[in-house]
Amino acid sequence: MTISKGEVEQFFERYAQAFRDGLEGTLAEEFFRSLFSTQYIAAGPKGVMAGDNDHTFVERISKGYEHYRQIGNKAVTVSGIEMHSIDETHCLVHVGWSSEFEKDGRRIDVPFTNVYLLEQNDGMLKVFGWITGDEVQLLKDNGLL
After folding, report:
1. CA distances from 73 to 16, 59, 100 (A)
2. Residue 2 — pLDDT band, cuts 50, 70, 90?
């Protein structure tokens, strides 16, 4: 069965909730890991990497959430989804995000887009890859670093 846009939207609402939980320091490891395939690929300005969805993966992600908290990230929401089917069990998704920061008593909204590769196995969607832009530069451009 082909992946529907509704399924993708529901998936990214769960993903956004996991991100918010991470920002609050209440990330549930099993819930978070359930969003990802057993292995993944990631690409960004510094290159491409591959990894396993294991305890070490969650530790790295948790450190990332700690960094976001330190620079004032308060919330993240999905602002848009553009889905492209690849075949019946894979799709590419551009996800627009809106990240809310607080710095020096003022709110700073930072929009960005990431690209995700999803697979559907046993009726469950999972991220097996993602591509990000230059997050460090984006945060610098918004006075957060």
Report:
1. 13, 19, 6
2. confident
